[in-house]
Amino acid sequence: MADQKMKGRTVSLMTMVFIFQVLFALLHGCFAASRKGQPPRNGTTVHPTAVNGFGSSVFLSVSGNVYPLGYYSVTVGIGNPPKAFQLDIDTGSDLTWVQCDAPCTGCSLPRDRLYKPVNSKFLPCKDPVCAALHSPKPHQCKKLNEKCGFQVDYADHGSVLGVIVSDNFPLSLVNGSLSSSFLAFGCGYRLQNRGPHTPPTTAGVLGLGKSKASISSQLSGMGITKNVVGHCLSGQGGGFLFLGADFVPKSGMTWSPMLQNSFDKHYSSGPAELLFGGKPTGVKGFNVIFDSGSTYTYLSSKIYQTVLNLVKKDLSGKQLQDVKDNALPICWKGARPFKSVQDVRNYFNSFALSFTGARNIQLHLPPEAYLIVTEKGNVCLGILSGTEAGLGTSNVIGDISLQNQLVIYDNDNQRIGWASADCTRKLRGL
Ligand SMILES: *[C@@H]1O[C@H](CO)[C@@H](O)[C@H](O)[C@H]1NC(C)=O
Ligand SMILES: *[C@@H]1O[C@H](CO)[C@@H](O)[C@H](O)[C@H]1NC(C)=O
221 C-alpha to center of ligand 2: Å? Predict the structure, then answer.
């Protein structure tokens, strides 16, 4: 990334690269020993296909914040007996993976907190989930019992390499049942550049993207939940995440069609127009990606420059001065250190994204959706140049702009929705 000082991981948009022969030759040795003496698996309480066809939902508490942590995570159990793993919630990537004791190079957790592939099974290369991870590249399995390897390269230049396994993934359902299905996920044993941008405490990533490989797609394929992902990230930290349709409000949501094109595997919507203080800025016709795996919002250079100019122009004559702060590239200080974004609300105007498609749909970006107040009491712009960050012309709406909103990715109805919400409270959607 252009800015090495940002805390937390920055962008999660990923590409997958698959490696075969070499990887499997290596792996065979690693896993052979650990798979000996594996106890028989048991405990499936949820039948793969729900009788009524409606399924239930999974509801998980979220912890984390935009600043200073830079990520939001959930804790899930994996294995039998289940072991707890804290995973970064990521709607910008598909593959769920955990740091894996295979053994691992580059893992950040102590060995006893790594996932041990003892009872897990290798996902065969010919499994549809493995094919989905390859997509849109053609999927070829050379040998009969070939395993499914993966490499994920994140936009912040971190990468993880490993093998796909399937293991017991117990999840409590809101109807009171326990789902103990085997789900496929990555056992990552070679992590690179998981440096300044990677949360050191998380064990991996919960991939909630739209491909068949994501956890939500897998659960929906088994009839356990609907293929709907929702998150509510509180600006005060914490929040909640759900998989399934039980918490989708019947009214009050703003829905925008989810773009469907073969080259964009991400949750995106558009075309959008940028408004500032309710007025057009002249910037329009761009698409945006909703990515909970990105801490900040990234706009392609032209849109970013417009945003920066508008904010700066708006600040002229006001008592804020440019200041250097390690947190982010663009910061200002006041006469006294600020305590929260509330203290600077009067200095900044609101942005909005107006989705110019069918109806006039807006995503409001008030000052707290694009500014942070740092430990030093400065206020910094939480919108960054995606072009400088290596994202090309993509525009990525990250956690900072998704805070205090219930955001729903409804894959069943191909739409993305949002509504202001107090994310510290559990919603009742039924
Ligand atoms: C399932 O496995 C767990 C631990 O591996 C064991 O305690 C439990 O008794 C088993 N349950 C059944 C129904 O076999
Ligand atoms: C809860 O939902 C799951 C998944 O659809 C289903 O298999 C299970 O039978 C349901 N449990 C109850 C108590 O309704």
Answer: 15
